[in-house]
Every structure is written in structure tokens, then in C-alpha cells.
Amino acid sequence: MIRRWLAFCLFILGLSPVSSLSAQTTLGSIQVERTPSDPTAAGIQYGWNRPSGVVQANPAGASPLLDTASFLHWVPNPLTVRHDDPNDPARHVGLGHPLVGTSWRNRPFHVGWLFGGMFGDQLIDDRISQDEGMFGGYRLGWDFDHYWGTELRLGFSNLELTDTTPLIDAGSRTSGNLFWDLNLMYYPWGDARWRPFASLGLGVGDFDFQDEALQSIRESVVTLPLSIGFKYYRHNWLAWRVSVTDQWSLAARGLNTMHNVALTVGVEVHFGGTRVSYFPYRSGQHLW
User: How many Å apart are CA 30 and CA 179, to the nearest integer?
Assistant: First the structure.
């Protein structure tokens, strides 16, 4: 009886199809698993929704160097980047010391102060020019994405005036300039400690001065500020900032088209948002 039972078991095992067993292929220290029951075993998954730690195989005969989808996986798509996944490969591009355990978006709002100098342009064509002077102001911003943000800025300056053809001895005069603008920020490196940026804005510039005949003039024009610079993540609530801004003012009401260039340093205090903690838990871990 025992012999018959053993013979029956061996017979059943001998009929088991080889195709029902899982096949594993080793790629270095990473294993790619394929099973016939998995219809996506021969496919590829890309983007932030790819399961963590899973490597999908290339289709038969496909070249990874010529695979468009594989290339696009490494191109950041700001419209699909998630803040709740710290392992999201699209959260940064790998440059500028990417943040680990924290994020700019944990405290997406900021208030800031700026201070520096402005190099003035010709105020009235062939009549009055602006020289160098101090420039300062305030910022209020919101990083609504790892790669994008917006910022409201108030800036003011007092620039010395020079007459091209003096009519009288007008003495020392200054132009009191006030700038309001709303800017769109772009961060090409994403969620990194060193965060270069470029911005484009739209606003209003107000110029209050006396001409060469000592007549008071106050005019407002449309401005298109263009900025480049970088931020440095000092603490989870504090950042340093350096920027160069072309305060491009469009010609109107007798004023010339101007490129008043400001070089400033500043500090930002970040607040708001939701700090998220992630597993696996590590000793000393805190909400970032």
C-alpha cells in the first residue's frame, strides 16, 4: 500500500508543467521576477507610481538606450510629483545635495527680507539718468510644487539723479522708486539644499522725482522683473538667498524704458504646511 502511494505521488509530480514555476533572473544584486500569471511581467513601469524596489524587465529585443519611456522617466514632470513620497525619484534631479528626511514643501510659505544695491538706468531719454543706490524690500511666497512657486515682492530704492544737460544748479536729487510685483518661480533642481531659481513677474513701478527744472514728477509704469539666483536650506524654517533682478520697466508717460538691475542678499522664514513622517522608522527620526 505504501509503495502504491509513493508511486502515485511521484507520478503526479512528474506531470507538473515546468512553465508553472517562477523564473528569476539576477541583475547584479537585484532580482527581476517573472511569473506566467503576471500579465505585466514583460512590461515596464515608469514614473513616480512605480512600486518601490521593483525593477521591471525590458521587452524582448528592446534597447534601454533607445527606449523613449526609459529616458522620460528621468525627466522631471512637475505636474505629477508627489510630496507624500520621499523616495519619489522625480522630487529632485540629483544635483545640489537633494534633501533627505525633509523638504522645502513641508513649510511651503515664506516671508523674507532683501537688501542690496540697485544700478539705475536712464529715467528720461537724453535728460535725466539714475545712478547707483540702496535697494531693499520684503517678499511673501508659496512653493506649491517641488519645481514651481510664486512670490509677491515689495521693493524700494532711492537713486541719485544726474542731468544730461543741466538747466540750473538743481543740486543733489534722488528718485524714490517703489516696486510691486507678482512672480512665478522655477526651481530646476527641485527639492535640493542648494536651490537655484529663475523667475518672471508682472507688476507696477512708481517713480517719484524732480526733473532738471525742479518740477515734481510722479509716474507709474508696468514692470516685468526677471530674476536669477539661488536659495540655501539652512534650517527647516530658515533659508538664505542671493539674487540678481532686472527690474525691466516699460516706457510710458514720458519715462524711458529702463533696466534697473538689483543685486540683493536676503533671508527667508518658512512656515505652514504639514510635516510628514515616513516609515521605516529610524532611531532619532522626527517629523520633517
Answer: 56
pTM higher than 0.90: no
For the segment 256-280, what is each residue's pLDDT rounded down to a tens digit? 999 999 999 999 999 997 766 544 4
Measured between alpha carbons, how far is residue 213 from residues 48, 65, 68, 173, 207 in Å?
A: 65, 70, 67, 11, 17
